[in-house]
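Troubleshooting log. The previous structure file for this entry was overwritten by mistake, so regenerating from the original sequence record. Sequence copied from the archived sheet and checked twice against the printout by T.R.
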Amino acid sequence: MNPLTHSNLLPDPLKAWYNQSVENSLAESGCDPQVGLTSQQVSQRLEYYGLNQLEEKAKRSSWAMFLDQFKDIMLLMLIAVAIVSGILDLINLQQASEKASEFPFKDTIAILSIVILNGILGYLQESRAEKALAALKSMASPKVRVLRDGRTLEIDSPQLVPGDIMLLEAGVQVGADGRLIEASNLQVRESALTGEANAVNKTVEVELSEDTPIGDRINLVFQGTEVVQGRGKVLVTGTGMNTELGKIAQMLQGVESEPTPLQQRMSQLGKVLVTGSLLLVALVIIIGLGVSGWDLSVFQQLVEVSLSMAVAVVPEGLPAVVTVTLALGTQRMVRRHALIRKLPAVETLGSVTTICSDKTGTLTQNKMVVQRVDTLNYSIQVTGDGYEPVGEFLLDNQPIATEQYPELEPLLLACALCNDAILQYEQGEWKILGDPTEGALIALAGKGGVDKEPLSQRYSRVDEIPFSSERKRMSVICQWDSSPDPFQPANLPYSNTKGEQPWPFGQATRTTENPQLTRYMMLTKGSPELVLEHCTSSVHHDDRAAGTLGCQPLTEEQRQQILEQNNQMAGAGLRVLGFAYKSLDRLSAPEADHEILEQGLVWLGLVGMLDAPRPEVLEAVQRCRNAGIRPIMITGDHKLTARAIAQDLGIANHGDQVLTGQELQKLSQVDLEEQVDQVSIYARVAPEHKLRIVQALQGRGKFVAMTGDGVNDAPALKQADIGIAMGITGTDVSKEASDMVLLDDNFATIVAATEEGRTVYDNIRRFIRYILGSNIGEVLTIAAAPIMGLPDVPLTPLQILWMNLVTDGLPALALAVEPAEPDVMKRSPFSPRESIFARGLGSYMVRIGIVFAIFNITLMAIAYGYFPHWKTMVFTTLCIAQMGHALAVRSNKRITLELNPFSNPYLLLAVTVTTLLQLLLVYVPFLQDFFGTEPLTIMEFAVCLGFSTSLFVWVELEKLFIRWSSKGKVQG
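Regenerated output below.
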C-alpha cells in the first residue's frame, strides 16, 4: 500500500483550509511546524503532486502555424492556378513554342510569391500568440524560504509541496497557497489576484465559513501575492494547478478564442469568390467548347482564359491592404492612448454593443476627494479637484471662511494629524504618497488653510494605535511643541479674554501660569458608528463672534442625528469617516488596553469623500448612448457608491437595479442571462464573476468589451470580444490576455477607440467595394473573349496580378486612411454577424462589375476591329478606369465635387503614381517585354481615356439618382 494515500499524511489541495483550525490543518498535513517535512517526505510528495508550476497545453509548432496559413480557400485556388500555369509553361517549353524573349514560368513564380507573402503576413499576426499563461508562470516562480528537517532553506518555488512550512517576511512573493499558522502584523497585497488595491491584514486564529469569498480569506495566503509588512509562517496547502493561480490558468486555457467579425467576414468573402470563380470557369469552358463545335484543340486556350479569370477573381492585394489598414488604425489609436495588441481588434471595436467598465480609475479619477463635512450644527459642501489643496467651503451654496466656524477648525486639524500620507507637488501635479483616503483628508485640511507639514512639527506624534480590520479605526497621540507657543492668539483663530488660551480641541485648558496642565491629545478616525460608540461628548460653541469652543455631553437625539447624517452621506455614495479626540494629561503605559484608552472621546464630525468621476467621462457615456452602445459599471465597491457614480455619469437612472456579487453568486447562468439586459450596475463583484457576466451578455447576442486589471480578470478579458487591460494599474497577466491596453486607464479612451474601430471598418468596406467591383469587371471581360470568338486572352495572369496588387492596392491603401464620416458615432453599431456583403455592398459590387465589364467589352470589340494593340488597350483602360472608381467610392452619398479633395491627399498621390506606373509598363521597352504590353498611339491612348472615364461618370450619376429618389420618397 502506498503510504501517501493515508489521509493524515496527504493534505487535500482542494479542501477549504480557511474553514479549518491551525491544529486540524497541521494534523491533516502530517507535518511538525517546528521541524517541517523530512527530505523523504518531500521526495514522496514531489512524486505524488508534481512540481509547483503551472501546466500548459501543447501548442502548435511554428512550422504547423505557418502551414495553416495556406488552408485559406483563396490561397489554395491560387496555388492550383500556379501549378496549372507551370504545367502549361512546361508543355510550351517542350514544344519549343515559347518566345525567346519571354521569361518561362514567370506567372507561376509571381503567383507563388504572392501566396507565400500572404502566408508570411498571416503567420506574423498569429505568432503573437497568447502569453498570459507565461506571465502567470513568471508570477509563480520566486525563491522561497522553507523549514525542512529542522533547518531553514532557500529553494526554488517549483520544489514546494503541500505540507511544507513556508516562511514569509516583508518584500517576498508568496510561492504557493497556504494556511497561516503564525503571523505578526502580516499584511499581503493581493491586488494582482483580487483587484483590491489595499493590502490585506492577515490573521491566524480565525475559522471562516465555506462561502467566504477569496478576498476575505484572511487566514490564507496565495501564490503570486506580495508581503508588504510583517512576517508569517505558512503551511503550504496547494501547489501548481491546485492554487488560485492554477485555477485561473485552467480558466484561461478553457476559454476558446473565437474568430473576430472581420476574420469571419473575410472567410465568407473567400468562399463566395472562389465558388463564383469556379462556376464561371466551368461555364466559360463549356460555352467555349460549344461555340467551337467541341473542338478540343481550343481547350488549352480555354484553360489559359480560366487561369486568368481565377487570378482576376482573387484580390491578391486584399490581405496586405487589410493588414496595413489595421496597422494604421493602431497608430491612430495610440495617439488617443489606446494600445492595440492584436490587429483584428482594431476593426472589432467598431462592432461593440456593450462596454463593461471598472469604476475605480476608469470611470473615476482614482483620487478620493472630500465632498462634504458635517458637524452637529452645520453641513458644509467642499469643492475642488483631485489632491490639489485648493477649493471652497460652501454653506447653503455660499462660500464661507473656515475661521468663522470654530467647530470646523479642530476637525481639519484632526484630518491633518491623524494621517500617515504625504502630499507632494511634482511636475506640475499634486500627488499623494500613501493611502488615497488619507490623501483626500490632507487636501481637505489644505483647503481650510491647515498645512500638515508645519503642523506635524508643532504637534509631534508620540504614539499611535494602528488601524485594523477588527477595530476599523486608528488613533494617534500628539504632544505640544512648547516653542513657539501654539496657544498665542496669533497662532489660533480663536481665544478668550481671561488670560486663558484654550486647547485647540476645546475640552481641557491651561493658563500661562500653569503651562504643563495638558501636554497630549489623542485623535481618532474610522467607521462613524464605531467611533461614535466611544464618544461621550461633542465640541460646541456658544458665541460665534467670541469664537469660544467647549464641549457638551452627547444626547441620544444628537447620536441619532449623527447616524442619520452618516446614512445620508453613505446613501449618496460617499465614503464616510468619523472623527473624535481626547485630551490626555500623560502618556499611557505601552501595555495599556487600547479599548479603555479610546473611551470617553469628544465627537468632532463626519467627513464624506468620493472617488470623483472623471470630467470627460460624462460626455463619453453620452456618446456611447448616441452610438447605440450600452455602458455597464462593474465594481467591487459598495452598491450605494456604485449607484451614485453610475447615476452621476448617466450609466443608470434613479431606481435602476443593482446586482451585488453575493446575489449574482446565487443565480444560475440561465437566470443571469435573463437579468443582464436590465442590470447596468454590478457592485461588490469579485473578479471571477466578470467571466459569468461576459458569458451571459454574449448569450444574449451582445458584443462585449470588458475592462480589467487583476490576474483574476484575465479569463473574462480573454472571453470578451474585446478584452481591455489597464496600462497604469493593470498586471502583466491581464495585459497579455487582453486585446487592447488603455494607456491612461480612462473610459473616454475606450469610446475614442470605438470610433476609430468604426472608421476602420467603414474604410475596409470602402476599399472592398472598390477592389471587388473592379475585379468582377475584369473577370467578365476575360470570360467574354472566347465567347466573342477572339483568338487570344486579353489579359495574362501577370498583368492581372499587376492590377490586383498595384492598380488596386495603392488606391485601396489610400482609401484606408479616409477620414470618418460625420455621423459615425451617431448611429447604432452594425451587427458583428452581418455579412461582408450586407447593406448593399454585394449588389453594388455585382452592379458596378457588370457596368464596368460592359464598357470594357465594348472597348475590346471596337479595339479588336480597328486597332492593332487591342490587348494593351484593354489592359490600360481597366487600370485607368479604376483610378476614377477609387475617387468615386470615397463617399456613398456625396459626389466627388462635394468632397474636399485634400481631406485625403494620399488618394490623390496614389492615383497619380499608379497612372504613371501604368504608362511606364506601356512605354518602357524592358517592362513591355516582361508584362507583354505594346506602345499605344495617341489615338489608342485617347480612346482608352474616353472609356476609362465612363465608370467614374456612372458611379457619380448613381449617387445623384439615389439622392433624387430618396427625396422623392420623403416628399411622397
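Confidence is low (pLDDT under 50) at residues 1-8, 483-503, 505-517. Archived copy saved in two places this time.
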